[in-house]
Amino acid sequence: xxxxxxxxxxxxLAGSNAAFRELVERHQKRVYSLALRMMGNHTDAEDLAQExxxxxxxALPRYRGPGxxxxxxxxxxxxxxxxxxxxxxxxxxxxxSDIEGLYANAAPCDxxxxxxxxxxxxxxxxxxxxxYRAVVLLRFMDGLSYAEIAEVLxxxxxxxxxxxxxxxxxxxxxLKEWVLI
Amino acid sequence: xxxxxxxxxxxxxxxxxxxxxxxxxIRAHLESCAACRExxxxxxxxxxxxRPELAHADAPEGFAQxxxxxxxxxxxxxxxxxxxxxxxWSAAALLLxxxxxxxxxxxxxxxxSIAKREHPPAIHARQPERASGKPTATGVEAPPIHLWHKxxxxxxxxxxxxxxxxxxxxxxxxxxxxxxxxxGRQTLTPADMERLEELAARYRLAxxxxxxxxxxxxxxxxxxxxxxxxxxxxxxxxxxxxxPGIKFVARSQDxxxxxxVTLE
Lengths: 181, 264
Known about the structure:
The complex is a heterodimer. By secondary structure, chain A is mostly helical. Chain A has 10 helices and no strands. Chain A has helices at about 5-15, 15-40, 40-60, 70-90, 95-105, 110-125, 130-140, 145-155, 155-175, 175-180. Chain A starts with a helix and ends with a helix. Mean pLDDT of chain A is about 80; it is low at about 90-95 and about 105-110. Chain B is an alpha+beta fold. Helices cover about 35% and strands about 10% of the residues of chain B. In chain B, strands 2-1-5-4-3 form a 5-stranded antiparallel beta sheet, with no helix packed on it. Chain B is elongated. The chains are: A mainly alpha, B alpha+beta.
């Protein structure tokens, strides 16, 4: 039976780096994916995901469980990504016509169309403001509830609802070629 | 039913984030509203479109190893760090206590004359002729005065350990200034000057030559001798280490030290 996150944290605090490595291996996919979708490139994503784990390691004595390690780690990663995205102003301004162009250029065969659609969707998500993007990723990638997202981002649930509503509207406009079939 | 009333809630409805009562009202509305049903269907298509694209990606090969190599310390980092931390804080606390005791002893035993000294002596603190807040012989309550001194060139912030409270000799207490206004800013009167000089003489500072300079609180170091003016500080009292009151400094003519006076 696998030890829980909290058990591994306790072992880390007792001096076991092997336990922390297990935590990294357990959560690396989620943290890396989040960073990748937030930053849009593998180099920044890996750097930020690693930094998130390093900061979590240093902050382990301040972790207050039980059962909230994944959410706590996610909060560290999201905040790092938000700061990095804001610092570098990497938000991509997307002209809706660009996405329509991607759709129009997609070849008739299913595979090419799928590639074009994926590209359009990810481009549309990257075009969102960092705050909206984080909410969309936590909702659609991790399936977190509004309350869980609110906890990760330390904002009220009503703010999450408003941001998601706005983000969905923006995405719907950007991806209308696929949404309004 | 008004569609606009529900338009902003359809996303939350789709995500199951509404309370049962609101969700039930929306469900009832959807049964009779084709436009809202289409809106909801579009939101569902959007979710179906996005979700597969946001599947978790595999972390790069060797990711965990690289994380472990970036950790600040090796094995048993927390145990070592916590022990170091305990020792460091204990030592720091002990040093502070010993330092404070030594300083206190030295301060109380310093001779009165300062003219031959590199730095001014401690102003003998707590020479209560009248305690603040208590009735006096004349029936007038004297506001307390805080004096501090600092050697020339020493950062202003380091003056705090040399803060003394002297009660009984007070300048005229001004009317309380209103926050953020210039009301209460007054030039020291000759009578105030006399009393300040008397105060300085009392503490054997007059023979070092005193010049008074108006100094905004916190900027004492840059002050130049000149006019003496009261500086109301009630509007500057947000900082925790600043007490509301009036503060100005007296600088010795030889520039070796300065004296600050705070009126409460």
